[in-house]
Amino acid sequence: MDPLTSNLLDRSASSASNNEEHGLSEAHTAEAKRVANLKARIATLESQIEETRLKKKETAEKLNNPDAQATVSKHIKLLHQYNEIRDIGQGLMGLIADQRGVRIVDVYEEFGVAQGD
User: Stretch 40-69: mean pLDDT, rounded?
Assistant: First the structure.
């Protein structure tokens, strides 16, 4: 083989080798960028999770009683008290209606109580 042909073959082989290395380098660079993007996304999500946890904690601290069961129990107790007072009020209005000889509805209207109250 003459030196010119040998030189051209060497350059061609070297160029092919460089292209393969360049292709691998590009794939490696693309993979590295993808990994970096994923790590950045993970950091962002972890930050958002922490913000959400802090908001939850702040909201729970603002509640009078963060224990849901205790809150429900308190509301049930208050509802029972309301119902007892309402029943007493309706009984008194019935007595007033009987005393006056009018309908209970008339007494309700006089005191400004609607039928649904």
Answer: 88
